[in-house]
Amino acid sequence: MKQVSIDPITRIEGHLKIELDIDSGLVKSAQSSGTLFRGLEEMLRGRDPRDAQRITQRVCGVCPAAHAIASAQALDDTFGIQRKIPPNGRLERNLMLGGNFIHSHVLHFYHLSALDYLNPHDLEGLELEDVKIRDLQSYLKSSDGAPFTPEYSGDYRLGNGISAALAGDYLEALDVRKKAHQMVSIFGGKMPHNMGTVAGGTTRKPDIDSITKFTSRLEEIKEFVEDRYIPGVIEVARTYDDYFEMGKGVPNFIEYGGFYLKEFGGSHSSTSKGLKGGVVSEDGNSVREVDLSRITEVIEHSWYGDEARGHPTETKTTPAVNKEGGYSWVKAPRYKGKPHEVGPAARMKINYLKGNDLVERELGNAMKEAGVELDQLNSVMGRHLCRAVECKCIVSMMEGWVEKLEPGEPSCANYEVPEEGKGVGLASAPRGTLGHWIKIENSRISNYQLVVPTTWNASPRDEQGTPGPMEQALIGTEIDDPDNPLEAARIVRSFDPCMACAVH
Ligand code: NFE
Ligand code: MG
């Protein structure tokens, strides 16, 4: 038995340690640990509720628009104004979240994951016209190669031509990300951590100027997503098709749904959303509605005290350093007592099964081209493929939303902060499904609880000893060389973990 510790695992967000027991080349046991305490929820207690969407965005620089929307919705719910959000406010929230998704998905494939498959040394000696790649070549020659020198590397299969194309896209993706950030800041004032998302809607009424600026960037991004990102991921996926069978994890998937298409409909499951919610469990391919009351936070192996256990309407986040059996600052969310995978693969699968036309078409095409079946999507390559398909679907929906904005019309509803109340805000975030639960007493926040996408995926074991989704994805993996566990690194990165979010 060999013990392998990857600490920290790089090219993800935040602080993650992965520990593996490897026997005869197989991962027998895996532990995922969030190694940095945050405590954002505790900071919210006693504050004005309207501070929530300012502070919760600071959980993370890579998905702040998702936290802003979940938080604003939790306030809408608590203040009783969910049905009063003007169409402009609803649409601008969707557009800001969409911009955030594009940024995050493009970042993940090119700047966090590509170097698991793309060998920069393939570029050496190539005669290339692209000035940026020529610069990259001379940079690689004249330096130690960072950040293009992965700690774990090898098994490169793409060949020179595709590597050069991907390297060019890697550089162009930096520009795409800039444009995606600019799109969020057009309505949000700045990015990361926008100021425009508030209880009641958004702060900036759309006008012709903002709509034009937004649309021109969206069209440029659309071209990149359709002509480069989707074909690039399919090329990598076909070359590494064995990775459709690797990193499978749990057979349970959950998503609350996001991107409101109409005003709030009275319950989360009945509200019409661009990405639909649902639960798929191991009993097959039927999708059920999410019952929020069945979510629990388990803390048997997390460094938290007893009051951190239970349903998120009540749970606290009190640290219990050195707790026996603890090995992570991440809690273990469970649905009906079981670990569930969240993220683009879960979301695309649920939307495909629910007959979301756009997803059926785009995912159907991508699966055909990549030569993969629906039940292979929760895998390393399946997750990359679903992320790209989701990005394309969101760009397409954004084109429709931006057209519906009404210049000069209001984007925000009035409200008063009540003395008492409680509410929930749910959103799709790039890495999965996101919930914020709030309670107000004396017009102050008395409890605030976030259950975040990577909290589900990177969760530790629960009270039954059942490992979390990422841990299960690692268990059973064949590792060619335990001193170079690149298979494990590829599996972990396919989840796009954000430990800043997971711990919050
Ligand atoms: Ni810090 Fe986040 C997303 C949220 S994930 S990135 O996407 O919510 O755990
Ligand atoms: Mg929490």
Condensed summary:
This protein has one domain (2-502): Cytochrome-c3 Hydrogenase, chain B. The chain contains 14 helices and 15 strands.
Strand order of the largest sheet: 1-2-3
Biggest sheet: strands, sense, closure? 3 strands, antiparallel
Number of strands: 15
What is the name of the CATH architecture? Orthogonal Bundle
| Ligand roster | NI-FE active center, magnesium ion
Q: Report the end-to-end length measured between terminal Cα atoms.
A: 34 Å
Structural classification:
alpha+beta
Q: What global shape is seen?
A: globular
CATH topology: Cytochrome-c3 Hydrogenase, chain B
Total helix count?
A: 14
Helicity range: 25-40%
**How many domains in all?**
1
Mean of residue pLDDT values? 96
Strand residue content = 5-15%
> How are helices and strands ordered from N to C?
EEEHHHHHHEEHEEEEEEEHHHEEEHHHH
Task: Report the CATH superfamily.
Answer: Cytochrome-c3 Hydrogenase, chain B
Report the uncertain regions: none
Radius of gyration: 22 Å
How does this structure look, described?
This protein has 504 residues and is α+β, with helices and mostly antiparallel strands. The chain has one domain (2-502): Cytochrome-c3 Hydrogenase, chain B, CATH 1.10.645.10. Helix content is 39%, strand content 15%. The protein has 14 helices and 15 strands. A three-stranded antiparallel β-sheet has the order 1-2-3. A three-stranded antiparallel β-sheet has the order 6-9-10, with helices on one face. Residues 41, 317, 449-451, 504 line the site of magnesium ion.
Per-chain topology:
Layout lengths: L1 E5 L9 E8 L2 E9 L5 H5 L7 H4 L8 H16 L7 H27 L17 H12 L17 H29 L8 E2 L2 E2 L5 H32 L13 E3 L2 E3 L12 E3 L2 E3 L6 E2 L6 E4 L33 E4 L8 H10 L3 H14 L9 H25 L16 E9 L2 E10 L2 E8 L1 H5 L11 H6 L11 H9 L4 H5 L1
Helix pairs in contact: 3-4, 4-6, 4-10, 6-7, 7-10, 8-9, 8-10, 9-10, 10-13
The protein binds NI-FE active center and magnesium ion.
The site of magnesium ion (MG) has 6 residues, from strand 15.
